[in-house]
């Protein structure tokens, strides 16, 4: 009996030993496979992280050195986010008005540049063109020994501070909108602008000659206050028709009565019409008040006959009831020769001439020494519209906010 127990005990011990050995043998056999599996998983994680986090090349610019060698500058998506942000801010700020007028989002509106591009594509193209020129000017400025002074760098810091102040907390944390990256972009922009201004100065443009080409007659500005009553009415489809004779007869009588009240007025906004709802329209007659900065070249405000009568008026003079096929008018001349429009046009003409001359100089003498090529990631993966949009800081529609969230999330994941 005791012998049997001893045998069973020994057999049990041997069984345990065999089980332990079997387990050890299993782990020994599969340890290599397990280690390989762990290494493979680690490698896959590393690849995914690299794919998602590596810098994305979007533009490569190559140029010639003075010694005949080649300099290459690579721009990454991170550096483009400042330009993307400023463009998206500009167009998103007027998105509601654009949709109200045209019935679609600016970003999806078709052929906005008359080249077949929708809004997003057109802005993306514009951003890349600006980055190419900025980088070429920056590189050429450096090649010619130009740099920013301490004072100019200080102005960059002020601009950076102002820019960052305008960002929401969420935007400050966005990819590419950090201080260091934005500072790099602003310094490049400052040096490129400095170089551009030097080029323009060296062109020695005769600004007086440019201003002399602006017509003083066409850009003479007449500042008017006026009352008007339209003779035509438009339906929802934009079709116009003339009001009936009875209504027009009553309207003319109302205009004549108003003219008698307005003849000695120094301000047409002071108690001449009854306007309880403050919509600049008389509550009973429908006669409306407005102002106009009328240019000498304007042919749309009224008929030639009415325009001719208006332009003869003296400052402070009130007209009789003027009329043409479109409307009745009572006009008060505030200023028959405001120089603002002419001066603004002279300034614009000078700026246009500077830009035209610079563009030619840039194309003929600078750009030819550089090649600038947008990279595949920019062409295929970057979608402009809501990459830097913060729905909590904006005032977009719910539909736009949903789109923004989705696009921004995918954009951030890709980066």
Please tag this protein with its features.
single chain, 415 residues, alpha+beta, four-stranded antiparallel β-sheet, three-stranded antiparallel β-sheet, 13 helices, elongated
Structure description:
This protein has helices at 2-53, 77-92, 95-102, 119-143, 150-165, 169-172, 179-202, 207-212, 245-262, 304-311, 340-366, 376-381, 398-414, and strands spanning 57-64, 70-76, 221-230, 232-234, 240-242, 288-295, 322-323, 327-338, 370-374. It starts with a helix and ends with a helix. The chain is α+β, with helices and mostly antiparallel strands. Helix 2 crosses helix 4, helix 4 packs across helix 7 (179-202) and helix 5 packs across helix 7. The strands form three sheets. The chain has a four-stranded antiparallel beta sheet with strand order 6-3-8-7, sandwiched between helices. A three-stranded antiparallel beta sheet has the order 2-1-9. Strands 4-5 form a two-stranded antiparallel sheet.
Describe the secondary-structure layout:
Elements: H1 2-53, E1 57-64, E2 70-76, H2 77-92, H3 95-102, H4 119-143, H5 150-165, H6 169-172, H7 179-202, H8 207-212, E3 221-230, E4 232-234, E5 240-242, H9 245-262, E6 288-295, H10 304-311, E7 322-323, E8 327-338, H11 340-366, E9 370-374, H12 376-381, H13 398-414
Antiparallel strand pairs: 1-2, 1-9, 3-6, 3-8, 4-5, 7-8
Helix pairs in contact: 2-4, 2-7, 4-7, 5-7
């Amino acid at each position: 009996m005791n012998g049997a127990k001893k045998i069973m005990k020994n057999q049990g011990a041997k069984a345990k030993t065999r089980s332990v050995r079997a387990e050890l043998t299993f782990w020994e056999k599969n340890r290599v496979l397990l280690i390989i599996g762990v290494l493979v998983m680690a490698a896959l994680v590393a690849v995914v992280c690299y794919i998602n986090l590596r810098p994305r090349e979007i533009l490569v610019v190559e140029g010639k050195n003075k010694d005949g060698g080649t300099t290459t500058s690579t721009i990454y998506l991170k550096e483009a986010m400042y330009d993307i942000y400023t463009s998206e801010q500009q167009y998103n700020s007027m998105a509601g008005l654009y949709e109200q007028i045209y019935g679609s989002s600016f970003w999806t509106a078709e052929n906005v540049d008359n080249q077949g591009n929708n809004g997003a594509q057109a802005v993306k193209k514009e951003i890349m063109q600006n980055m190419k020129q900025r980088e070429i000017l920056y590189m050429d400025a450096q090649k010619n020994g130009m740099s920013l002074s301490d004072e100019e760098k200080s102005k960059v810091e002020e601009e950076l501070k102002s820019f960052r102040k305008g960002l929401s907390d969420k935007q400050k944390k966005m990819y590419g909108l950090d201080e260091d990256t934005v500072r790099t972009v602003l310094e490049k922009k400052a040096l490129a602008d400095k170089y551009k201004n030097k080029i323009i100065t060296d062109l020695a443009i005769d600004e007086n000659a440019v201003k002399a080409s602006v017509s003083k007659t066409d850009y003479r500005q007449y500042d008017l206050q006026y009352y008007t009553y339209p003779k035509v009415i438009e339906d929802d489809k934009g079709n116009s028709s003339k009001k009936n004779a009875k209504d027009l007869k009553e309207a003319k009588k109302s205009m004549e009565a108003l003219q008698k009240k307005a003849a000695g007025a120094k301000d047409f906004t002071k108690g001449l019409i009854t306007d309880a709802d403050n919509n600049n329209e008389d509550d009973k007659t429908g006669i409306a008040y407005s102002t106009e900065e009328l240019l000498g070249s304007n042919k749309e405000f009224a008929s030639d006959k009415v325009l001719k009568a208006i332009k003869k008026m003296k400052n402070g003079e009130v007209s009789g009831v003027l009329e043409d096929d479109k409307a009745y008018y009572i006009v008060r001349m505030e200023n028959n020769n405001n120089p603002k429009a002419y001066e603004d046009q002279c300034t614009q003409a000078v700026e246009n001439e500077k830009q035209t001359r610079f563009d030619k100089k840039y194309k003929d003498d600078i750009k030819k020494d550089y090649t600038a090529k947008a990279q595949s990631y920019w062409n295929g993966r970057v979608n402009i519209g809501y990459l830097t949009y913060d729905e909590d800081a904006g005032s977009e529609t719910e539909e736009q906010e949903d789109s923004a969230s989705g696009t921004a999330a995918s954009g951030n994941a890709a980066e």
